[in-house]
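The following block was generated as part of the benchmark described in Methods. Ligand: zinc ion.
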Amino acid sequence: MNKLLFVILAALSCTAAYSQSDRWQQRAKYQMNVDFDVATHQYKGIQKLVYTNNSPDTLTKVFYHLYLNAFQPGSQMDVRSRTISDPDPRVKDRISKLSPSEIGYEKILSLKHNGKPLKYEVVGTILEVTLNEKILPKTQHTFDLEFEAQIPVQIRRNGRNNSEGIDYSVAQWYPKMCEYDYEGWHANPYIGREFYGIWGDFDVKITLDASYVVAATGYLQNADKIGYGYTNKDVKHKAGEKLTWHFIAPEVHDFMWAADRDYKHDVVKVDENLDLHFFYQTDTLANVWKEMEPLAAQAFKIMNQKFGRYPYKQYSIIQGGDGGMEYPMATLITGHQNLGGLVSVAVHESIHSWFQMILGTNESKYSWMDEGFTTYAQNIVLSELFQSKSDPQRATTNSYRNLVKSGLEEPLTTHADHYNTNRAYSIASYSKGAVFLNQLGYIIGKDKLESGMKRYFNEWKYKHPNPTDLKRIMEKESGLELDWYWEDFVGTTKTIDYGIKEVVQNGGKTDVVIERIGQMPMPLDIVVSYKDGTQENFYVPLEMMRGEKTEKLYSKTTLLSDWGWTYPEYTFTIDRPSTDVDRIVIDPSQRMADINLENNTYPSLPKVAPRFKGEKVR
Ligand SMILES: [Zn+2]
């Protein structure tokens, strides 16, 4: 290879790592300098944003999120939290009672576009900006912004002095440009949940009292001046002195930090390329956090192997906030839990590194693709960590069944903030989203689901995949047509219910009549156990799939003819007399989320009250 060609190819392959070739994406480069006053919980910030318009469109407006403005009496978040029928107990009416020194705010002091002042209007949690100079396609523009802000008392996710005494959980804290993508602007007001942002690079300097330990998204650049466990050097700080912490975070879509005077800081290596950082208060938590640390490291190893390599060199698990919330390269979790609870939340939030922080779906629109997929992977990882023998997805599937029974279910296409109840949002996003993947494994086969998830990661990392992007990956991987599955299971609340209607002797053979009771059609594995101890799976593909799965789950599988979905019944013949048959079960793997299992078995099982584990969602 000639040298010049090599240099060109090398340069190309560097940029290809963050390729945006499949669909254009905007690009942001943030530089922020923040001076924090721990006496008032207020800070002043200077922000330079270099914004690249990779779209084919000319922009005449831009929008910024001002998330902290949600923590004010009368805000949309406040009113929604008080008027929804099943309020989040962490919020309820707490915002309505905040005094001026307790609220959160982000005030814009000045805004310039390419050096010239701009007019703007603050509308709740969104800054609306009408440009004087248009942003033409494929151009780069600079926005300079000065702001001041106040960290509210801890209500939801961010805030000061949380219930466990962590001084500052600083998330959703700076004016953040809204994402503009192939579907247009996403200037969502901050009402309850879920985020979406522009991929880019952050360079952040935070100056505050030297007695605070800071944990953050990104790599600390001046560890030798900081100390506090970031370096082996013992660095002393004078009382009353202010320290500037300098972090850089490449290829992320947000930046979070936290600060506390009592943080203990542990570092645990996952492997040569990844360090886990743990920040927690040095009280009675030490033992349980120390026990959690190697399990968290093991969780990263399992995820790397099953879902694709975590690409950053660092991840921080930080005590703070009000439960668990995911951010790029870090999470805020509450720390006062037993080992099981602590590992569960640390693992869940860490897995969001894959489903949201690397595969950056628009969470507002597709909360099931980040919460659901995270829950699915969490179930697998926890099952491995604690060497559980039971089906890791069973409780999640039962939680979905309970939602169906409640009558509160809404389609997964519902915007995360617009579900009528918090319960419908939670179970749809976390449980039905997990069921979606588990059941996809039933439709296309476990092997294809596993290879498909890796392919999804590799082809869509650092991008904004949508449901159709995932569908195309799974179709290519399996060779099956899957429109129908996305349309019914994501777009509607149609449910699955198949039953064994009749088993009749037909000469020396046995006819089995299956009926479709639910509105949603599915391919079927019908497993017959014979009295001689052998087993045979009768596999009925759905005609719309235009093919069959190749999964080898059962010792013998007989491929039957397709079932066209409009036929209410389907009959197949077993080549043995009915006296040979011990049992017939529709999908004994129970990956298919049939909402009524009673009619799935022949002879029918004695009736017992359904025993579903309590719904557990986060
Ligand atoms: Zn989550």
